[in-house]
Every structure is written in C-alpha cells, then in structure tokens.
C-alpha cells in the first residue's frame, strides 16, 4: 500500500487547540482538502515521544483517530506526540507524503521535509523555514466574515474600538494581583475615549476576570466571560487598534495580521526568546509598548502563514506533477 496516496492534507496533533490551529492555518492555505487527525500514544510509550522505538500505530490511545491509507499528499504535524505518527506515515507512504512539522520538533530537522519553527527559537538548517511567531488561521476574508457575524455585539460600542487580548501567567511572565490591577486601571481610563472589546483567555483565571468586570462596570465595555460563541475573530475584525499582554506570541501575531496598531502591555518577567520575539515585531513597526495611551500608525499586515505556505507549495509542486497523485 506504499503508493496508495491521495491529494489531501492531513493535520496531525494531539488535539490541543493552539497546536491544531497552527497546523490548520498552514494547511488551509494550500488549497487541498484538509483532514484533522488527533492522536496520542498510550502510556508508557508517550514518554518516549518524539522518539519511539516501536510502531506508533499499534500503541495509540483508543480515542485516537485511526490512521490508514490512502496516505495524504502532505502531512502537517505539531507537537511532540504527533512526531512518531507523522514519521511513520511518511515511511508507510513510501516517501511520497511530504512531511511538514511546525514548532521546534526537538529532534533533528533532517528527519522532516520541512520544519517551520518560530524565529525566536533560533533553529537553523537546510530544510528549516523560520517565521515570525507561528502559523495561524487569520485571513482578511475570515476577518470580514467575522465582522459581519458580530456586528450586533460590537457595532454599538463607542468608536474607535480597542480590542484587548489578555493572556496570563506562564513559565516566564508574572500575572498576579498587581498586574491585573494595573491593567484594570488602564482599561477604565481608556474607556472614556474608546469602545473596549476585552477578551480574557483560559490562563487569565476566573478571579482576574471578576476583577476586570468590577473595574469596567458602567463603562460600556464588552467583556467576554466565556459564555456563548467565542467572539475572538469578531473582536479582531472590529478592532481599530489592539492592546495585548506581553505573554502571548499567538495573540500578538494574530492581531498583527489586521495591520492595525498593536500595543504591548508589559508584564514582569520574560525571557531571551520572548525579548527576541517582541524586538522583531517592534523592528517591523508592528508593535509599540503601551504607555497609557492609544497611538495610531501603519505597517504591512503580517502574513507569515502565507509566506510559509508558499514554501510548502514550492516543495509540493502539485501542478507540475499531477501523475504523482491518486484519488
């Protein structure tokens, strides 16, 4: 069955939303039918990933997506658990499946056809294509659709509108009572001039969201508290500018797709990788530190996903080799 391949793209992850969205964002740009595969290794084999001395197909958890031919033309993996599976599929296809891995795989990049890590990881190699941040699913067409879909929620807000994207504590940044108080005070001050669309994340925490709600009471700000449909895309589409906490690479990059000003709300902590990432955004004229006021500036919208997709398309060369595909 080694030659049983079809002209599709598979996205293979362990199911974490952040990983899946990265791989999906890249896959959707290729113009191929996309299939999502969620896989995990059973214990104790999961501890060996990304290296595995046995076949992953025989040691997947019962809730993993079954993997069988016809194999895809291209497979995009993300995350440590995905790696044994995508490499096994590459082998099972007789090498015909193009193997792409996003993020740093933590094993030799030469084991993949292409690795697409964030620039701030510092990974290099002949088949490494670093990008600023990570791939995402944000496109102008999706933003327009989301703007229409969320007009009822966001059109009534005072213009201009500031979308506030809030992360939380992570391994290198602090986000405690002092930080949330500073942010809440800043937002209350901004609310006298701007319509605020405030979107906490899972990492923000219920207590911090409650503090924000108290501070914003009576301001007319929109604060999403996790109920109903996630308005994230609509919030991107309706923003005239952004305020993004410093702890999230993805949120900053997704805001940058819009071409609207992105202010970075500082947090204590950080790391060399985060500093490199933020320096890159600032040098491209995308972001500025938040100093208590909203500024206006212009820059070319960031489209690192599109740039990476073009590189994958070069490797696929689908139109020039139609006889290589079946199905």
The poorly predicted ranges are: 322-327
Number of helices: 10
Radius of gyration: 21 Å
How large a portion of the residues is in β-strands, by DSSP E? 15-25%
Task: Return the string of H and E elements.
Answer: EHEEHEEHHEHEHEHEHEHEH
Helix content: 25-40%
Strand order of the largest sheet: 8-7-6-9-10-11
Rounded to the nearest angstrom, the distance between the terminal CA atoms is: 14 Å
Shape: elongated
What integer is the average pLDDT? 93
Helix/strand-derived category reads alpha/beta
Strand elements, count: 11
The main sheet comes to:
6 strands, parallel
Draw up the topology in text.
Elements: E1 5-13, H1 17-28, E2 34-38, E3 71-78, H2 82-92, E4 98-102, E5 114-116, H3 140-149, H4 151-154, E6 161-165, H5 177-190, E7 195-199, H6 206-216, E8 222-223, H7 232-238, E9 241-245, H8 249-256, E10 262-265, H9 272-283, E11 287-289, H10 304-316
Parallel strand pairs: 1-2, 1-3, 3-4, 4-5, 6-7, 6-9, 7-8, 9-10, 10-11
Describe the structure.
- With 327 residues, the protein is an alpha/beta fold.
- It contains ten helices and eleven strands.
- The protein has helices spanning 17-28, 82-92, 140-149, 151-154, 177-190, 206-216, 232-238, 249-256, 272-283, 304-316, and strands at residues 5-13, 34-38, 71-78, 98-102, 114-116, 161-165, 195-199, 222-223, 241-245, 262-265, 287-289.
- Helix 3 crosses helix 7 and helix 5 (177-190) packs parallel to helix 6.
- The relative contact order is 0.14.
- Mean pLDDT is 93; it is low at 322-327.
